[in-house]
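quick q for whoever's on today - can somebody do inverse folding on this one?? i tried earlier but teh output was garbage lol. tokens:
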């Protein structure tokens, strides 16, 4: 016997209807290069409906990919709504990547149009001739001073919006249809696309509202510092519209003093970012009134104990850890104090919050295999990569995601991350592919072999260290090697430390043994 309940689809259009009907008076505040823009959610939703009509006039097909190159801004939120709600796929692009990677990603996704903040146009324009599928570039004037090329493919966001006569009619989408696309470095090789569905986005937003998750409510003022190109800013904009919270968006104003100013002035209650951001704000904590904050989430990497203590001392609350991946929407676990922690003193409570915590409702985690790999399962976890639906290496036979992290889970389900099996370095919340960096180093004529390992770094979390073996008779000149890399990888990929060795230790199968290497360089 089947249940007799309504099949109301979980979709982004539903989120939009809710925020405009119930919370139209609440606000979205964006910092710009020249000041601040304040809009109501009703205005944002109305503009998003017009934007959907713009996509129609631009001829973006059903399921067509709409790429975005944007800071955290109101217009980016409008794209978050209009693109999926009109049956297209939002493809957020990481503008910190190197031109080669950006080109690969846009080509792989076959983006039809790109929406680009004016200040970021110099990141895209030089590669545009290599992007065969991109028909139009819509510039969002964020006060950036970049020149606008005189080219028929370029259009202005506000100009297009002002020409629309009436909003688009809502598209019919299946809740399992694709809503947005985000690329990740994955474990090896080229970046891979993770394709979220309407259903996974809505479920994830609901999970963030949970009392034992982020407990985001109508009373909150939510400020995602985590970029909107990074897994939908951890789903925070969608959670804010579901709950009816005010949303504060830092735009390009991401210097520590600017972030502190926004947290203080807008009485922000909830914020999320990687530990590198929280470390940057640390010296400014004593001078600011951050008493409005009720939860500060540090995700994407380990939370150092000293940093969390500095936040407790300077801002009155410790950092709360959350674990996740691009493949998992992203939040899967979130630290929390449960009844078993009653009676712990402040230091011990802070230690509990410093670890990733137990899984959110509807998600499951387990530790498997010889290496103790963390695996994840649930309706907000990827089942395959875009364009590589098999991708067997990343998934187990019973359909769980292999995370490439090594962890342990205690009897109450609390996760601890111990190590990583994937060959990547996470610096300031962004990935550096060791393998790709090794290839570029080995392209230098004086280099015979090179292996890259991650070393702990106080400011960035991790930094790459390059171990290099010279070709017989040659000498490695560090400055020359860095200059060689400068044209091949993003500047923040270039290793600060280069160690010259006679030989890279190998495993029985001839691969670089990074474990032995770490021992050799004293890590
Ligand atoms: P990304 O897909 O870029 O969001 O990166 C996901 C990866 O970041 C995970 O597989 C971990 O290696 C790392 N990571 C994310 N959150 C945490 C955390 N709370 N603690 C330690 N590592 C984390």
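ok took a stab at it. sequence:
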């Amino acid at each position: 016997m089947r249940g007799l309940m309504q099949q109301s689809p979980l979709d982004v259009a539903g989120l939009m209807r809710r925020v405009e009907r119930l919370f139209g008076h609440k606000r979205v505040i964006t910092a710009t290069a020249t000041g601040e823009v304040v809009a109501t959610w009703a205005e944002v939703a109305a503009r998003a409906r017009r934007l959907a009509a713009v996509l129609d006039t631009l001829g973006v097909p059903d399921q067509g990919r709409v790429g975005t190159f944007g800071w955290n801004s109101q217009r980016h939120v409008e794209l978050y709504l209009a693109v999926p709600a009109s049956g297209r796929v939002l493809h957020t692009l990481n503008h910190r990547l190197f031109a080669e990677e950006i080109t690969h990603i846009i080509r792989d996704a076959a983006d039809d149009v790109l929406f680009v903040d004016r200040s970021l146009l110099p990141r895209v324009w030089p590669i545009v001739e290599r992007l065969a599928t991109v028909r139009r570039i819509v510039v969002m004037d964020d006060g950036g001073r970049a020149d606008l090329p005189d080219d028929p493919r370029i259009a202005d966001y506000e100009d297009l919006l002002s020409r629309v006569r009436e909003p688009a009619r809502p598209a019919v989408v299946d809740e399992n249809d694709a809503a947005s696309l985000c690329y990740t470095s994955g474990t090896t090789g080229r970046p891979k696309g993770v394709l979220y569905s309407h259903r996974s986005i809505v479920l994830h937003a609901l999970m963030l509202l949970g009392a034992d998750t982020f407990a985001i409510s109508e009373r909150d003022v939510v400020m995602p510092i985590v970029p909107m190109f990074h897994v939908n800013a951890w789903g925070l904009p969608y959670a804010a519209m579901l709950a009816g919270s005010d949303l504060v968006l830092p735009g390009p104003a991401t210097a520590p003093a600017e972030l502190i100013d926004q947290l203080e002035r807008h009485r922000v209650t909830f914020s999320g970012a990687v530990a590198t951001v929280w470390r940057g704000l640390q010296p400014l904590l004593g001078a600011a009134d951050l008493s409005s904050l009720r939860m500060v989430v540090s995700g994407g990497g380990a939370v150092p104990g000293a940093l969390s203590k500095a936040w407790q001392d300077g801002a009155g609350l410790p950092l709360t850890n959350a674990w996740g991946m691009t493949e998992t929407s992203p939040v899967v676990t979130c630290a929390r104090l449960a009844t078993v922690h009653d009676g712990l003193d402040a230091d011990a409570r802070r230690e509990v919050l410093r670890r990733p915590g137990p899984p959110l409702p509807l998600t499951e985690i387990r530790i498997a295999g010889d290496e103790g790999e963390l695996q994840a399962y649930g309706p907000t976890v990827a089942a395959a990569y875009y364009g590589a639906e098999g991708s067997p290496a990343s998934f187990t036979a019973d359909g769980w995601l292999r995370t490439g992290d090594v962890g342990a889970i205690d009897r109450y389900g609390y996760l601890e991350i111990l190590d990583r099996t994937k060959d990547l370095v996470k610096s300031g919340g962004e990935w550096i592919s060791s393998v790709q960096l090794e290839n570029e180093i080995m392209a230098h004529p004086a280099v015979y072999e090179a292996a890259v390992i991650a070393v702990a770094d106080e400011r960035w979390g991790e930094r790459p260290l390059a171990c290099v073996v010279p070709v017989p008779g040659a000498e490695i000149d560090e400055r020359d090697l860095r200059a060689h890399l400068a044209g091949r990888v993003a500047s923040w990929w270039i290793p600060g430390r280069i160690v010259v060795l006679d030989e890279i230790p190998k495993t029985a199968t001839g691969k670089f043994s990074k474990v032995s290497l770490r021992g050799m360089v004293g890590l």
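fwiw The pocket of adenosine monophosphate is lined by residues 184, 231, 299-302, 321-326, 330, 356, 403-405, 417, 420, 426, 431 (CB under 6 Å). also The mean pLDDT is 94. so keep that in mind when u check it
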